[in-house]
Amino acid sequence: MAAPRRPRPTLEAVAARARVSRATVSRVVNGRTSVDPRMREAVLSAVDELGYVPNSAARSLVTRQTDSIALVVSEPPTRVFSDDPLFSLVVRTASNELEAAGKQVVLMLAGSPRAQARVEDYVAGGHVDGVMFVSMHGADPLPGAIARMGVPVVSYGRPAVAVDLPYADNDNVGGARQAVGHLLAGGRRRVAAIAGPQDMTAGQDRLAGYRDTLAAADRRALVAVGDFTRDSGAEAMRHLLADDPGLDAVFAANDLMAIGALHTLRRAGRRVPDDVAVVGFDDIEAARFTDPPLTTVRHPVVEQATVMVRLLLTPAEQHDRTRVVLPTELVVRESA
C-alpha cells in the first residue's frame, strides 16, 4: 500500500516554525521588501524545512497577478506550425526571458474572427498579466480591444493598425535598401522584388526600401507579392520571369520566398548568380544550406523578441523609449 500523503504545509505552520505572524510570512513569500532581515531569514528557513509551496491561486486573489503572459500570434495553425522558423524562435526566446522573470507564456493563436474573440474573452477574464502580439495584420481588431482594457500590451514589430502600442522592430526599410543596393553595386540592372503581404508592416517596409533604392538609381520596379511562404516565392518567381524574361536579380522579402525563387530559377534553367542574383531577408538557418548559399539580410529575431519581453515587464514610467528599432546586417554569400 502507498504511504499516506503528508498534509501540505500551511502559511500558519510556517509562521509557527519561524515564530512570526502569519502576515509576516505572507509578506515574505509574496516578495515584499518591508520585512526585518532577521525575520525574513527565519521565514525562509521555515519554508525550506517544511517544504512549503505558496498557493498560486490564493496568491493571485490577493495580488491580482497570474504570472502568465499571453503570446498572441495572429496566424492560423498551418502557418505557425510550418517550416517558418521565426515563430518557434520568438516563442522560445520569449519563454526563456519570462521564465527568468518568474512568469510563463500562454501561447494563443488568433488567425480567425472566432479565435480573436476567444483571446479577447480570455484576457478580459483576468487570466494573464500582459499580452505580446506577433505577426499582426492590418485589419486585426484585437490589439485595440485589449489595449482599451488597460492590460499591458507590446508588439513584435511595428503595429499595422492605428493603435499606440510599445513595440520592438528591426530596420526593415534599411535592410531592404542594403539588399537592393548590393545588387545594383554588383552591376545588376533589372532588379525584381518578391514582396511580403501588404497588410503587414514588414511586407510594406521591405517593399518601400526596394522601391526607394530603385527610384534613387532611376530604375524601374518589377514586383510580385507573396505571403512569406516558400510556395508563394516559387509562384511569384514564375510570374516575374513571365513578365520580364531578362531580369538579372531578385530581392525576396524573406528567406523562405527566396528559397522558393531559387527552385523556380533552377527549373527554368537560370543559373544563380550568373544569370540571376538572389537576395533574401531574415538569415534563417536554411539560408546557409541552399544551393548556392543565400545572400540575405540578418533580422535579429532573438534580440527583438528579448526587447519585446523587457518592454512588457518594465513599468511604463521607467521606459526611456517604448519604440525600439534594431539594426539589420547584410550577409553576403554566393547567391549574389
Structure description:
The radius of gyration is 26 Å and the shape is elongated. The chain starts with 10 loop residues before the first helix and ends in a 5-residue tail after the last strand. It is built from 13 helices and 12 strands. Helix content is 43%, strand content 15%. The chain is of the alpha/beta class. Strands 2-1-3-4-5-11 form a 6-stranded parallel sheet, sandwiched between helices. It has a 4-stranded parallel sheet with strand order 7-6-8-9, sandwiched between helices. A two-stranded antiparallel ribbon has the order 10-12. Helix 2 crosses helix 3 and helix 9 packs parallel to helix 10.
Helix content percent band: 40-55%
How many DSSP E strands? 12
Biggest β-sheet: count, sense, barrel? 6 strands, parallel
Structural category is alpha/beta
Supply the number of structural domains: 2
Quick take:
With 336 residues, the chain is of the alpha/beta class.
Tag the structure with descriptive keywords.
single chain, 336 residues, alpha/beta, Rossmann fold, 2 domains, six-stranded parallel β-sheet, elongated
Layout of secondary structure:
Elements: H1 11-18, H2 22-29, H3 37-50, H4 56-63, E1 68-73, H5 77-80, H6 85-100, E2 104-109, H7 113-124, E3 130-134, H8 142-147, E4 153-156, E5 167-170, H9 172-185, E6 191-195, H10 201-216, E7 223-225, H11 230-243, E8 249-252, H12 255-267, E9 277-279, E10 296-298, H13 301-313, E11 323-326, E12 329-331
Parallel strand pairs: 1-2, 1-3, 3-4, 4-5, 5-11, 6-7, 6-8, 8-9
Antiparallel strand pairs: 10-12
Helix pairs in contact: 1-2, 1-3, 2-3, 6-13, 9-10, 11-12
Domain HTH lacI-type: 9-63
InterPro entries: HTH_LacI, LacI/GalR-like_sensor, Lambda_DNA-bd_dom_sf, Peripla_BP_I
Keywords: DNA-binding, Transcription, Transcription regulation
